[in-house]
Amino acid sequence: MSRVISFENVSFSYGRNKVLEDIDLFVEKGDFTAIVGPNGGGKTTILKLILGLLSPQKGELKVFGQSPCKSRIRTGYVPQFSVHDRSFPIDVENVVMQGLIGNTSFGPFYSKNVKKKVADIIEKLGLTQRMKDRFGDLSGGLKQRTLIARAVVSQPELLLLDEPVSSVDSSVEKDVFEMLNLLNKKMTIVLVSHDIGFVSKYVNKIACVNKTLVIHNAGEITSGIIEDAYRGKQVAVNHSCGI
Ligand SMILES: Nc1ncnc2c1ncn2[C@@H]1O[C@H](COP(=O)(O)OP(=O)(O)OP(=O)(O)O)[C@@H](O)[C@H]1O
Ligand SMILES: [Mg+2]
Fold first, then answer.
1. Cα of 42 to ligand 1 centre, how many Å?
2. Closest ligand 1 atom, residue 46 Cα
3. How does DSSP classify residue 155?
4. Domains and CATH numbers, the chain
5. What are phi and psi of 240, to 5 degrees?
6. Which of these, 61, 175, 226, 236, is most buried using a 10 Å CB contact count?
């Protein structure tokens, strides 16, 4: 097994506000990891550290064995609350194509290769019929699918998603997770979620973060652990009795 993400004793503060304290987090190739915890607990900050958008003041952080900035090209990202102006005339195909900016030279005419990559991922994610639809007119679930397609069109080895299902109903949530399950066969996934009960059916690791971080194997998750994670307690895990 090879290590994709490694946080060792990492602390991060915004000014004087310490958001993460001495966290250890290890993600292996093929893992599907959820990061859960209360609002303001530091979940989005962890993803931004993995992307190299922020740097820790203390500790060591490696992604694919190197600095996060160097490995960003290998990482796809679906940010929290992606805001797209409803009236902005961009269709599904062009939103997905944005995922290749930086990987390819862009001009007014996209190369055949780029168009093919975009069409392939659109088909894979079941969006072919909606390719020319305006992004702003899509339902919440189809918007989320399109944003995931944009994040994976460059075939990243690591996919980061920040609350991808926060604005959709439970049937769409299931649909998105089934799709992520398929993508997980090809890429390592780290996903931020508030719905720990739901994600524990799909992921193999759960990181509970509230300034400090405790990692659990999905099979260990109980309602007690869930409550503790949200109350801000340090969570104790006794592996032998499965609590
Ligand atoms: N750019 C910033 N400058 C200063 N403080 C920030 C900044 N971004 C976040 N914070 C603060 O850092 C803390 C952690 O924020 P973060 O966004 O990582 O939390 P979160 O767990 O993702 O929360 P949520 O569930 O609300 O998305 C919060 O107290 C937040 O107010
Ligand atoms: Mg957040």
1. 6
2. 18
3. -
4. 3-83+155-231 (3.40.50.300)
5. -70, -35
6. 61
Please choose, from the candidates 4, 14, 141, 120, the residue with its C-alpha nearest in 3D space to the C-alpha of residue 62. 4
pLDDT grade for 240, boundaries at 50, 70 and 90 = very low
Q: Give the distance (Å) from ligand 1 centre to CA of residue 219.
A: 29
Element (H, E) at 35: strand 32-36
Ligand 1 atom closest to Cα of 163?
27
Q: Across residues 98-108, what is the average pLDDT?
A: 69
Question: Is the C-alpha dihedral spanning 120, 193, 15, 22 positive or negative?
Answer: negative
Q: What number of residues does the chain have?
A: 243
CA of 17 to the centre of ligand 1 (A): 10
Question: Ligand 1 within 6 A of 45 CB?
Answer: yes
239 token code pair: 């592996």
Reported pTM = 0.88
| CA distance to 81, 88, 129, 161, per residue, from 165 (Å) | 10, 23, 22, 10
